[in-house]
Amino acid sequence: MNSLYRISQIANKTGKTSRALRYYEELGILTPRERSEAGYRLYGEEAILKIEWIDKLNEIGFSLSEIREFLVSFKEIGSAPDMMAALQRLYQEKLIEVETSILRLQKLSKEIKASISYASLCQASCSSKTEVSHCKSCEQHGKESPDLIAVIAKSF
């Protein structure tokens, strides 16, 4: 017989709060396998997998309402190939969004690194008497400051 767990046990196993799990149930994205005679929600091991799946989808940008919507739509799909085609389309759309975000974050990472490098050179080479207004275009660096530094420097 498969083990059944109360909501507090599932919460401990998944790192979710009992409140979050009850909310998942309200949304229709998580259903207890059964209820005890006392009315406690009882979940099987499959609930842990589903919660991990929900977390992954949430992490890649799906809202809980989107997850609910496609879970409902999946119930209407009759065959495995159709299910896989629907999942493929859904995941392909998210992959494009994730890859776009990665590119944006990589560009931002480069800008942050350039700002850190620029600030480090300034700390090492500027006199304590150098005014902040000189940070807009430092002659010692021989180049314009990165945008993350220039905006601050130009506001002085």
Helix-strand blueprint:
Blueprint: E1 5-6, H1 7-14, H2 18-27, E2 34-35, E3 41-43, H3 45-59, H4 64-75, H5 80-125, E4 137-138, E5 143-144, H6 147-154
Antiparallel strand pairs: 1-3, 2-3, 4-5
Report on this model:
11% of the residues are buried. With 156 residues, the protein is mainly alpha-helical. It has six helices and five strands; from the N terminus they run βααββαααββα. The strands form two sheets. The chain has a three-stranded antiparallel β-sheet. It has a two-stranded antiparallel sheet with strand order 4-5. The mean pLDDT is 87. β2 (34-35) and β3 (41-43) form a beta hairpin. It has two domains: 1-59, Multidrug-efflux Transporter Regulator, Chain: A, Domain 2, CATH 1.10.1660; 77-156, no CATH class.
Q: Could you say how many structural domains there are in total?
A: 2
The count of DSSP E runs of length 2 or more, i.e. the number of strands, is: 5
Q: What's the tally of helices?
A: 6
Q: Which H/E pattern describes the elements? A: EHHEEHHHEEH
- In spatial order, strands of the major sheet run 1-3-2
Give the fraction of residues assigned to helices. Answer: 55-70%
The structural class is mainly alpha
**N-to-C span:** 71 Å
